[in-house]
Amino acid sequence: MAVVSRSAVCALALGLVLTSTSAFSLSNSGTKSVGSPSRSAFNVIGRASANTNEQSSSRSWSALRMSAEVEYDFDVAVIGCGVGGHGAALHSRAQNLKTAVFAGNDVGGTCVNRGCVPSKALLAASGRVREMQDSAHLGEFGIELEGTVKFDRAKIAAHAKNLANRVKGNLEASLVGLGVDVVEGRGALTGNPHEVKDEATGKVYTARDIILAPGSIPFVPPGITVDEKTVYTSDGALELGSVPEWVAIVGSGYIGLEFSDVYTALGSEVTFIEALPNIMPTFDKEIAKLAERMLIRDRAIDFRTGVFASEVIPGILGEKPVTIKMIDAETKEHVETLEVDACMVATGRVPNTANMGLEDAGIETQRGFVAVDETMKVLSKHGDEGEVIPNVYCIGDANGKMMLAHAASAQGISAIENICGRAHVVNHDAVPAACFTHPEIAMVGPTEEQAIVLAEKEGWTLGKSQGNFRANSKALAELEGNGIAKVLYNKDNGKVVAVHIIGIHAADLIQECANAVSAGTTVKELSMMVHTHPTLCEVLDEAFKGAVGMSGH
Questions:
Q1: Is 407 exposed, middle or buried (0-12, 13-18, 19+ CB in 10 A)?
Q2: 8-state DSSP, 132
Q3: Other C-beta atoms within 10 Å of 488: how many?
Q4: Which of 112, 234, 342, 366 is 20 to 30 A removed from 264 (C-alpha atoms)?
């Protein structure tokens, strides 16, 4: 039985054509594969011709052209099953497209199995320990605890593992429940158009459109030896195999900050090793200064900046220390050697694009990143000379546009929209991000430093307004009055450009701001919207009102 053509399927999704659903319930043995086209058929097309083809394709769907020129095993094949690949697959099925996911035995990907999800479990458990150990804070509530607060490291680790497995199971169930074909092996391009090879079995499948969603892996700089026991990446850290007395964390970004929160709550001393001149270099500078005071100075944390960890030699737990040699980031001269109990490498991530047939398909990567246009179509190379590779898309960490799980999901949905002829572009300026420390940090849009440059370049005036947690009734009730919400906006048209928050539940508060950026809402409009009292979101209300000369108190 042949699979119905994509044009017919997209028409089905629009409710314009009715056809038997049996066309979507093919077994592998019943799926017809076509002969492999010649390699020359994989020639790239220019961007201009690609736009023309998109318009032509869209018109053909509108005309409900039902005849399929080629029969494929699937309408859409997704290589990778992290949050991005999963989101693409679900949206593909919502359009009644016959869909396969090549999971690589890793449903949920990094986020669910080795990232966002289990780390939140560790942060939740260690956060409880921190709260109960803070006798002064509890005393202000009139609460006293007798004895010492104890925790079971193995059970905390098990909580993280169990949560990851539960969420992974939910994702698997949603795929199966919606009729997505899950191929357990890792998928790779063959060099022939429309083909994906299951590396586990060697079987080749065909698909009208292919979405690359391979995700990323931890980056380990040269000179650092990882054994995932005493020197480890975030993958090993999430196992929480031990709580070292003294741990060095190479890198002070999101991942490093979150794990410093976990380790210090459980009793470790932490030393950050940062190559750039300032700690937390990717954060808004004002927020970073507040974070240094709130998350570092009052804890068992120190840091070295402007130095590289040029060599890291693993030790033996309880027997031999980890040796870390540091050099000056500019002169490259040796400056210090540390001996610590453990070292976590939190120096970012790189695309997991090796050995998946990209070169055979005419796709050149840059440091592993795949070039894409704004509609997620893959380009043959980075730069102006890159041309569209027909029917191939790339989403998530592998394209480097924004290495966040929810951004990958949004890109996956966007790719499906474009596959179905409905032009869509993700507004990455409206995608929020958060660091789940205690208290949290969250942001959407550029930093203040970047916004100043942007305003000058584009010719508009930057405005700034601030709300404070110390003036918020709910925050004070929680004895969590530290923190601010900073709103950056375009004074000429009133639209919100960016928001940066540090304070209790900042990760939840940022969504209102992201929605405002996405919708182009003005600070005047936001200032007149009613916020529930007493809630933390009134910190934002204060900032919005302040932007237009109103008082929130």
A1: buried
A2: H
A3: 24
A4: 112
Please list, in sequence order, all residues whose beta carbon lies within 8 angstroms of the beta carbon of residue 402, skipping any fewer than 6 positions away.
428, 431
* Contacts (Cβ under 8 Å, ≥6 apart) of 1: 22, 23, 26, 30, 31, 32
Environment class of residue 532 by beta-carbon count within 10 Å: exposed (0-12), middle (13-18) or buried (19+)? exposed
- Calculate the alpha carbon distances from 356 to 51, 344, 359 in Å: 27, 29, 8
Select from 287, 260, 543, 291 the least CA-distant residue to 439: 291
Query: In terms of C-beta density within 10 A (0-12 exposed, 13-18 middle, 19 or more buried), how is residue 95 classed?
Result: buried
CA distances from 126 to 119, 123, 544 (A): 10, 5, 34
Say if CB 141 and CB 237 are below 8 A apart. no
Q: Annotated catalytic sites, by residue?
A: 533
pTM assigned to the model: 0.87
Q: Return the closest-CA partner of residue 273 out of 301, 302, 304.
A: 304
CB 461 within 8 A of CB 123: no
Instruction: Name the token pair of 431.
Output: 């995608």
For the stretch 418-436, pLDDT in tens is 999 999 999 999 999 999 9
At 447, which amino acid appears? T
List the structure tokens of 200: 């586990």
How far is Cα 247 from Cα 242, in angstroms, rounded to an integer? Answer: 11
- Residue 341 DSSP label: S
The CA-based dihedral angle spanning residues 122, 127, 128, 132, taken in that order and rounded to the nearest 10 degrees: 140
- Output the CA–CA distances (angstroms, integers) from residue 441 to 11, 110, 354, in the order listed: 44, 22, 33
Q: Above 90 in pLDDT, residue 53? A: no
The values of phi and psi at residue 36, to 5°, are: -70, 125
Can you spell out the DSSP letters for 433-445?
A: EEE-SSSEEEEES
Give percent helix, percent strand, percent coil of the chain, each to the nearest 5. Answer: 35, 25, 40
Q: Where are the beta strands (DSSP E) in 225-360?
A: 231-232, 246-250, 269-274, 301-305, 307-313, 322-328, 334-340, 342-345, 349-351
Please list, in sequence order, all residues whose beta carbon lies within 8 angstroms of the beta carbon of residue 40, skipping any fewer than 6 positions away: none
Burial of 89 (0-12, 13-18, 19+ CB in 10 A): buried
Task: Confirm if 228 and 235 have CB atoms less than 8 A apart.
Answer: yes
Name the phi and psi angles at 398, rounded to 5: -65, -25
CB 135 within 8 A of CB 145: yes
CA dist., res. 471 & res. 485, Å (int):
12
Q: Which two tokens stand for residue 257?
A: 């900050």
3-state SS class at 81: coil
Average pLDDT of span 28-55: 35
Distance CA 155, CA 384 (A): 53
Percent residues over pLDDT 90 in the chain = 86
